[in-house]
Write a structure and sequence with these properties.
Blueprint: E1 6-11, H1 19-31, E2 38-42, H2 46-50, E3 54-57, H3 59-62, H4 96-105, E4 110-115, H5 117-128, E5 133-137, H6 153-174, E6 177-182, H7 189-197, E7 202-204, H8 212-224, E8 230-235, E9 247-250, E10 258-260, H9 263-275, E11 279-283, H10 295-313, E12 319-324, E13 327-332, H11 333-336, H12 348-355
Parallel strand pairs: 1-2, 1-4, 4-5, 5-12, 6-8, 6-11, 7-8
Antiparallel strand pairs: 2-3, 9-10, 12-13
Helix pairs in contact: 1-10, 6-7, 7-12, 8-9
The structure holds 6-O-phosphono-beta-D-fructofuranose.
Length: 362
């Protein structure tokens, strides 16, 4: 087994509460191994590897960052080295060789890639070029396969639930329908959990296409029972039966991934038309990714960071750290990527929400 002396760490994709907690855990625990493992921070995701922008990380760099949102290393979602766009407006091109050169110039033994599905896919592609990688699953969407949970989700959930709680005040006072649109891309975890925790009357998620007639019926049913307001929690990826997801154009870059958002305005218009109720919309957007990570996310991120270093020290490359049940372990990155973990429409989460009268518009 070769001795691991130096590892790199990067944070890529959308920022998310808990990234700094992972960086801190990696640096602190690596420096405490016997012999110590040095850590190099790679700036702005894979861009730093392509453009050779890095900084050594020592204990003082990570002290005090546990509770800070964002990432001290910076991040990017236009940095796939195999299709690199970077800050330029030029056509994307393959800069993976530059990234590999930086890795070798820095004399790294391995790379810890902290990110979501796209970041982990990239890590796999690097593994194929002989770069030893460890993945750490991050995303507020909570949709990565191979782990029960990703860090960032709990913090986003806290923001979304707080928003739903606050919206109750206006909804109730003004006898309105309030729609709260949350993120999550193709998975409805944030909407389902915030809707359940905040007592949403209707929850709309991508996994259960809705019928607007049914949504209106549940609002009117409440009105008949004297409840003259309703709260709808809708995931940005929700869609009507036979309809499409609402998008705001697409990301720049070769893959032209759609940017989701705005479904709540369509739903509001339909409800006003069909019921005559007054409807208001709140789109939470990036508020869900900002601010101080919750205690749970700090705890999870710290475990993930420490476990990533343990895997690196044991030369267990190609693995992603994971939490299953109450145990931390690992799963091959190859098995985790591409397996979008979505809400089971027949699962416990949905059944529980239905049991307390929540409508899914179906
Ligand atoms: O994947 C995290 C996420 O916040 C999604 O929920 C959302 O659709 C997307 O990223 C937004 O990304 P951006 O900040 O690049 O617009």
């Amino acid at each position: 087994m070769s001795l691991v002396k130096r590892i790199g760490i990067l944070t890529a994709g959308g920022d998310c509460p808990g990234l700094n907690a992972v960086i801190r855990a990696v640096v602190k625990s690596a420096l405490r191994r016997n012999p110590p493992i040095q850590v190099v921070g790679i700036l702005d995701g894979y861009s730093g590897l392509v453009e050779d922008r890095t900084q050594p990380l020592v204990e003082s760099d990570v002290s005090g960052i546990l509770i800070r949102g964002g990432t001290i290393l910076g991040t990017s979602n236009r940095d796939n080295p195999f299709n690199f766009l970077g800050a330029s407006n030029a056509k994307p091109r393959d800069r993976s060789k530059d990234a590999v050169n930086t890795f070798h110039r820095l004399k790294l033994d391995g790379l810890v890639a902290v990110g979501g599905d796209g970041t982990l896919r990239c890590a796999l592609d690097f593994a194929k070029l002989g770069i030893p990688v460890i993945g750490v699953p991050k995303t507020i969407d909570n949709d990565i396969g191979g782990t029960d949970v990703t860090f960032g989700f709990d913090s986003a959930l806290a923001v979304a639930t707080d928003a739903v709680d606050r919206l109750h005040t206006t909804a109730e006072s003004h006898h309105r329908v309030l729609i709260c649109e949350v993120m999550g891309r193709y998975a409805g975890w944030i909407a389902l959990h915030a809707g359940t925790a905040g007592g949403g009357d209707v929850i709309l998620i991508p996994e259960i296409p809705y019928d607007i007639k049914k949504v209106c019926e549940s609002i009117q049913h409440r009105e008949k029972r004297g409840r003259s307001f309703s709260i709808i929690v809708v995931a940005e990826g929700a869609k009507a039966i036979g309809g499409k997801m609402v998008t705001q154009g697409s990301y720049r870059g070769a893959d032209k991934r759609p940017r989701l958002g705005g479904i709540s305005h369509h739903i509001a218009e339909e409800i006003e038309k069909r019921t005559g109720d007054e409807v208001r919309v709140v789109i939470l957007g990036h508020l869900q990714r900002g601010g101080i990570p919750t205690a749970y996310d700090r705890w999870l991120a710290t475990h993930f960071g420490v476990h990533a270093v343990e895997l690196a020290e044991q030369n267990l490359w190609g693995q992603m750290v994971a939490l299953r049940g109450i145990h931390f372990g690992e799963t091959p990155i190859a098995e985790a990527v591409g397996k979008l973990r979505r809400v089971d429409p027949q699962g416990e989460g949905v059944r529980t929400a239905r049991a307390v009268g929540t409508s899914f518009g179906d």
